[in-house]
Amino acid sequence: MSPFDLLSKKIQRKIWEMRWEAFTPIQDLAIPAIINTTYDIILSSGTASGKTEAAFLPILSLIEKKAESQLKVIYISPLKALINNQFERIISLCEYTKIPINRWHGDVSLSHKKKFLKQPAGILQITPESIEGFFINRTEQLSHIFRNVEFIVIDEIHSFLNTDRGVHLRSLISRLEKYMEKRPRIIGLSATIDNYPLVKEWVNPDNVDNVKILESPGNDKDLLYSLMHFPSEQSLNKPLELYEDMRFLTRELKALIFCNSRGEVEYTTVMLNRLAKKEGIGETYFAHHSSIDKREREYVEKTMAEATVPKSIVATSSLELGIDVGSIDIVIQLDSTFTVSALKQRLGRSGRQKDACQVLQLYSSTKDSLLQSIAVMELIREKWVEPANGYPKPYDILFHQIISICKETNGIRLDSLINKIKGISIFKDLDEEKTLDLIRHMIEKEHLEKIHGTNELIVGLEGERLLNNKDFYSVFQTNEMYEVLYGMRKIGTLDKLMFLNIGDNIILAGRLWKIIDFDIERNKVYVQKAADGKPPKYTGGDVKIHKRIGEKIMEILCSNDIYSYLNDEAANTLEDLRKLYHNNKLNSNERVIWKNKENLVFETFTGTTITKTIIWMLRTRGIDVGQPDALGRIKLPSQIDILNELTKIKSKNWSTDELLEVTKEEEMFASKYSKYIPKHLQDEMHASHEIDIDGVKKYLKEFNFRVIDYQ
Q: How distant is the alpha carbon of residue 583 from its chain centre?
């Protein structure tokens, strides 16, 4: 039977009504696989290839007879905004069925939630944090709600695989399964995944052979791309010519302009609107990032989706995933993304219309950004993407989940708790004795309390303090923020770590404001409109660069390859950068240490974790080494015999304890809940996340190292 014939009559009717001429390749693969097998399925296909329909057309056909009165599908999304976008999309597919679609997150009204709780049915769209809320607040209803679930659809599954949030989600799924009559099938959707064995292990650790990867290139869109270099000595204030070029490029187009920081989003938005205003045009560019108020972001998304005239959004990764902002003509990236997967995800936002090309404009403003931009673009062309590597030794999330389990069970004996933890697949490889250490530590610190007589463990006083904070539902780290208000209207938030004073002018939501008052107790900042302002500074987490990007940079510097997508300034800058490497006859299997009178500069050109490990190894040798730069350059005292030191590093049998002794406190791995676990487990997490001794050994054997005098 054809994929179309496998679908139910009601779903076929909807497809006829939508006048689809054919299914996309991923839909042709997914429909028979979901309907005719019992496998867990991962749909790996390019952005805008129809993955949502590929999953839901067959699922709706399978569940439509019972879904009117039973909850059959949990759709899990990393973003509330993505849930809201997909809500309308799935409702449309269900038009001729009686399958109810339910959203559950903080913005959904209480009346809608009560209606769902009374009669759970159809499809539930939810975030991991809201699932946690069920375990904390609605324990007695879990079986009633989730008993009949047959499918769990995880959108943008790649965004969970390497993160604490992904461990949290996998734990919640394992715990939910205990309330279901049978294990649900998991259907994962992604445009950017690699390392399929790890993905299969994450999805179904008890039976990886029951997980099938369906891979399709998507729509095989042509990609048009260009890289323009505008030299600047400052990271934020780019040359005016760059913004003028960007304005010229986007005057007649709908664009998504991506920046790597919230401050840069704000500054870029203001600069582009100033240029538009100079032409007599009103507000054309809108800022979008996580510190802008939700209602402001939704207004921007709606305005963009409905726009019939050229408008653009300047955004961080907040629009990297599939939030609908209408058809996009061009994607612009200002300075390089740190990862190939991020750029791949971003460029996929354009060219969604039939027969349209994907169009990408890259800008760089520093020499390092130019090199990294070329490296990332070349890896895109090679169809390489960072492989998933998981989130090792998740004792921090186990701490969080133990509190949640004790709340869920209203008290649990130690042996039952250990068995419950063993039944959660994501924790199954953790050492049982260390898990007991964690539990004993939690009792000692009053996160747990042991009841005399029954010997049951319940949530302790300190655990209740964490549990009663609305922030408990999430495991990812956020900074304390001030809420920014213009009259009664909430504009967004500012990082408390910023030094702010009354009278300061700031940019927020792409507009200019003057701070007129603080309410410290209520964490509020009041503003009025201003004529100028500085972009806010936000703290952000470190981004690790994969070693393949560093290797590609060295390959670019040592080669004579011509990249036709570079403008003259970029090509000339690259040629200047290459001269040192060509004059010294360097090749890509070498690494160089540049020497002058004052210091050595070791260009590691490898992954962030390997570079950090080398730094700690050098410190054990008594060498004063600071932090590497963005491309992994290490600065050392000039008198060091670095080649001898690298030889000793390569031949030594290392222990993580030696490296921990020289690791500064601010360099230690830290997550939201890591500070609550015993010190030896903190050290173990640090070692598994931040230290790569085997990687260093392989790196030192794989490459040759040269010291070259450079004045």
A: 41
